[in-house]
């Protein structure tokens, strides 16, 4: 059994001072819905754990703030708070749709956006739409603050660029120039309380019946959630009534294989990514019409 001492911080300064002091021995806990499962399973990565630093009471980390060019989402915002936010529903309905698919009511009430990002699961439901939205993460340590794109923060399955003495305090999401069409798809093994086998976030403007600034991000298809830039190029400026779905499906599957190489899951995932994109595009086009 992993034994640890529980510590609590009420401010960012208190939290980063504890992280400096305890170094590798301390682990941050927010909602605990990922970490407590790992502790229960006596995960190898937690061998050096001696302290759990509870940040759930740190002031100012549960904000959803409207700024001139971007929305600032505090790291402690729960999935339920995202779902209930009028501002998020107005500006980024895709985030709401993704949050609604997460776990159960209990998990959505406790799980946070900061935890979802820092756990860095390839299947995390908020990461895929946040990648499509071009979000940036804000990290604080005793030496100051740094910001980097979420796409650079996540470096591999369950791996990221966070330094041990840093706390993720917020996510900045740039506003889209207009109300883009959006679609979120999630394939799971069963209907309820299930992690994504593959998820997909599509955002696009439509002008004169053509896709403009189309963004297509897949999660769990590749080691980290990423935008499929080749298929984006293929669809950009394409008339919505002039899509060869068989070609798009084949090229989407091929783009995945170009990134991952052939793996045990390829025979399943290759057709599924293409079919998911087809479904997302067709749902968007139905809305346009
Ligand atoms: C039954 C069940 C169902 C689930 N279903 C889904 C699902 O459908 N989709 C999905 O995406 N996830 C799902 N999850 C996973 C989990 O609920 C989410 O990833 C959640 O957002 C994690 O947030 P948390 O606050 O609970 O993280 P915690 O468990 O508190 O922390 C997770 C990790 O992030 C670190 N961390 C947390 N906050 C910070 C911070 N601010 N700065 C730095 N590091 C931090 C912790 O040290 C830890 O390593 C499920 C989990 C369970 C148990």
Structure description:
- The chain contains twelve helices and 14 strands.
- The chain is an alpha+beta fold.
- The protein has three domains: 5-54, 2-Layer Sandwich (Uridine Diphospho-n-acetylenolpyruvylglucosamine Reductase, domain 2), CATH 3.30.43; 64-174, Uridine Diphospho-n-acetylenolpyruvylglucosamine Reductase, domain 3, CATH 3.30.465; 181-288, CO dehydrogenase flavoprotein, C-terminal domain (Enolase-like, domain 1, 2-Layer Sandwich).
- A five-stranded antiparallel sheet has the order 4-5-10-6-7.
- Strand 6 and strand 7 (144-149) form a beta hairpin.
- The longest helix is centred in the last third of the chain and has 23 residues, at 266-288.
- It is globular, with a radius of gyration of 20 Å.
- Residues 27-35, 37, 55, 75, 102-103, 107, 110-112, 114-116, 118-119, 124-125, 162, 167-168, 193, 195 line the site of flavin-adenine dinucleotide (FAD).
Task: Please provide a brief summary of the model.
By secondary structure, the chain is of the alpha+beta class.
Helix proportion: 25-40%
* Rg estimate, integer Å: 20 Å
* Largest sheet: spatial strand order: 4-5-10-6-7
Q: What pattern of helices and strands is seen along the backbone? A: EHEHEEEHHHHHHEEHEEEEEEEHHH
CATH architecture label name of the largest domain: 2-Layer Sandwich
Strand content: 25-35%
CATH topology of the largest domain: Uridine Diphospho-n-acetylenolpyruvylglucosamine Reductase, domain 3
Number of domain units: 3
Bound molecules: flavin-adenine dinucleotide
Query: What is the end-to-end distance?
Result: 58 Å
How many helices does DSSP assign? 12
- Identify low-pLDDT runs: none
- What structural class should be given to the helix and strand makeup? alpha+beta
CATH class category of the largest domain: Alpha Beta
Number of strands: 14
How would you name the oligomeric state of the polypeptide chains in this document?
single chain
Q: How is the biggest beta sheet arranged? A: 5 strands, antiparallel
Instruction: Give the CA-based shape.
Output: globular
What is the average of the pLDDT values?
A: 95
């Amino acid at each position: 059994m992993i034994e640890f001492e529980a510590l609590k911080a009420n401010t960012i300064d208190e939290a980063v001072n504890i992280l400096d002091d305890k170094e590798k021995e301390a682990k941050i806990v927010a909602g605990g819905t990922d970490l407590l499962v790992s502790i229960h399973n006596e995960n190898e990565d937690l061998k050096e754990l001696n302290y759990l630093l509870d940040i759930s009471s740190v002031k100012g980390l549960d904000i959803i703030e409207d700024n001139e060019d971007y929305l600032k989402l505090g790291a402690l915002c729960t999935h339920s708070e995202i779902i209930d936010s009028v501002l998020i529903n107005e500006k980024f309905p895709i985030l709401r749709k993704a949050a609604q698919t997460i776990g159960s009511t209990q998990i959505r009430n406790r799980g946070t956006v900061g935890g979802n990002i820092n756990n860095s699961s390839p299947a995390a439901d908020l990461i895929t739409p946040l990648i499509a939205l071009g979000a940036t993460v804000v990290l604080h340590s005793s030496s100051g603050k740094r910001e980097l794109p979420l796409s650079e923060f996540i470096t591999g399955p369950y791996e990221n660029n966070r330094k041990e003495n840093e706390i993720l305090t917020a996510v900045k999401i740039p506003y889209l120039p207009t109300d883009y069409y959006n679609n979120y798809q999630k394939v799971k093994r069963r209907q309820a309380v299930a992690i994504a086998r593959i998820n997909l976030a599509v955002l696009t403007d439509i002008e004169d019946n053509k896709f403009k600034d189309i963004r297509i991000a897949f999660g769990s298809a590749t080691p980290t959630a990423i935008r499929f830039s080749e298929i984006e190029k293929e669809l950009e400026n394409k008339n919505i009534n002039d899509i060869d779905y068989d070609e798009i499906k084949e090229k989407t599957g091929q783009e995945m294989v170009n990134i991952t190489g052939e793996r045990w899951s390829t025979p399943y995932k290759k057709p599924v990514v293409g079919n998911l994109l087809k479904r997302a595009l067709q749902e968007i086009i139905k809305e346009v019409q």
